[in-house]
Amino acid sequence: MASSQVSPSSPTSPSPPSSSSPSSASSPPSPPNTAFRKLRGARSPGEFAAAVRRAAREIGEQVSCDARYIGRVESGQIRCPNYAYERVFRHMFPGCEPADMGFAPRDVVRGRGARRTTGEPPTESGRSLDSLKESDVLRRAFMTGGTAAIATAASLGASLGLAASAGVATAAPRAPRRAGEAEASAVEQAVRRIRLLDDRHGADGIYRRAAGPLRVAYELLDADTRRQSVADRLHAGAGELAISVGWLAHDSGRFADARSHYAEALATARVAGDAALEAHAFCNTAFLARDAGRPREAVRAAQAAQRAGRQLPSSRLMALLTLREAGGWAGLGDRAACEAALLHARTLFERGAADADPEWMTFFGEAELEGLEAQCWSALGDWTRAAEHARRAVDLQNAHFARNIALFTAQLAGDLARGGAPDEAAATGERALDLLAEVQSTRVRTMLDATARLLRGRRWGRGDRAVAAFLDRHALTAQGV
């Protein structure tokens, strides 16, 4: 929805109920959030809450916003919104960062050891109850769907149903014989939810649960459709869902499964004559080939992706595809070809975003550009340059992409360890272990395992306490303690 005009502050909204928790009694109250109050304008808290719920539906989020929540934000009781609310507020007020809306940084409010001022006690593990509840709600949102489109598309909704989340073994019903706008929307929504959960929590916890929606999506391709536009959306949606599920397999170390899903998406793209889907499928195939130790295949797949991508007026897409090619050249040890591809990718990236940029590329910003370049220098053995770019990737990454923050932090730890900075590598590795409390990614854990092996293989003296602390903690984490 379009953002409303900011107007002068009007009478104060209803005060939220007071908290009787010990933390709220011992901590000074936070100041009122006047910036957020101005964003509400002349609307009542109830009217503004309704606008928040409408905006959430527009982007496929689920929030239970009411006047009481708005009051808690404006009074300062909620110092930082959870990820779902943050995404909705960014949608409502384009160009506004959380700080512009009067919110405190998430790492200050919810970081390890942060003082609680919201009346919300920390859990034994150091994570807030709000954080735990959010994780649970997000995972259940994937299983239950929650949008009107999924509710009306009964078969796909059933594949995302409560029975699976409760651990009940039930066979998902077959897709309907006729498919329309509701079914196409349901498939598209399933793709968005998988991507959202992966951004925040990693792939390990949701890969198996994504198989049901994918099967039903492909069954929908055989359903009768009255409009070509619906058939096109179903093909594009099924292909994107195959790529998303393939990525979940990829990130959780199931390379054979990932290869199969990417091939399925590529076949769907060829059948439908969908250049955008073909470019995406080849892009992920190149990424997988690089990770699987097949760098020449990575180069060829990335070049095929570029041939398809040239049909779309998106410089950012071509920048990413060129970075995939650079990764392949780095794996082959061809420094000159890699450097040329990196330079070309930056030139394309600097042309800026465009309306034609694919929806799935929301993750591709400056942080991702830096992170992918770090991986190239790492593959070429230039640890100093790799660490420099990995550090930028961590610093620039949006908090929404929790998995990528964990990934690039682990990348940085490995580059520092290989570059002869064991203490800094250990400290960085500890930060990555902190992030794995929320992110489930076999890929990230594998990177930290390699860093631990590097640090364990060298001798350290009594002053290398940071290394010893990281190795001890890593060993306990590996044992599930």
TrEMBL record:
Residues 1-10 have a biased composition (Low complexity). InterPro entries: TPR-like_helical_dom_sf. SUPFAM superfamilies: TPR-like. It comes from the Bacteria. Residues 1-42, 111-130 are annotated as: Disordered. This is Transcriptional regulator. It comes from Streptomyces stramineus.
